[in-house]
Amino acid sequence: MAETISVITAFKTSQTTEFEWLWSLFRPGCDVVVQNNSATAMPIEWCAKLKSFKVRENPNGLHWMITVQHTAFNGQWFGRGETDVRFPAFSGTVPIAQLPAYLLEYHQQKDLLIEASVECGALYESLRAGSSRPSRHAMVREYLFIRRFVESR
């Protein structure tokens, strides 16, 4: 057990990980940043809550998958959505912030991302129709889950 804790601590200190140790980064309910680097010239990032994780095997090998919960809009109503994020197997050590999703605490501009999410959440809230508008308490909790384009500043 001491060796496991030592390895996890070393990875967290260096902000890197290996495929076999992905499980040590994520715990259900933690705040994560999901990033899509292929949709636009600038990466799209949004905050979400980790719901679950699992390892899957397919013809191309192992991949690790997490399910995250976030605020979503279906064109008419705002609510909660779920997205699966896959981590294809990789060899060697990679920076945590280069993973398809990673803990919010490792984001280089964490405060800006949270601020942008809150601003975007306020805009979304102003557009909500009556029955899809949550209570004030629920609304504050939702702001961190709002999808947001994050521009590098």
UniProtKB/TrEMBL annotation:
Species of origin: Immersiella caudata
Protein name: DUF7025 domain-containing protein
Entry-linked Pfam families: DUF7025 (PF22942)
Boundaries of every DUF7025 domain copy: 12-108
Record InterPro entries: DUF7025 (IPR054289)
Source taxon at top rank: Eukaryota
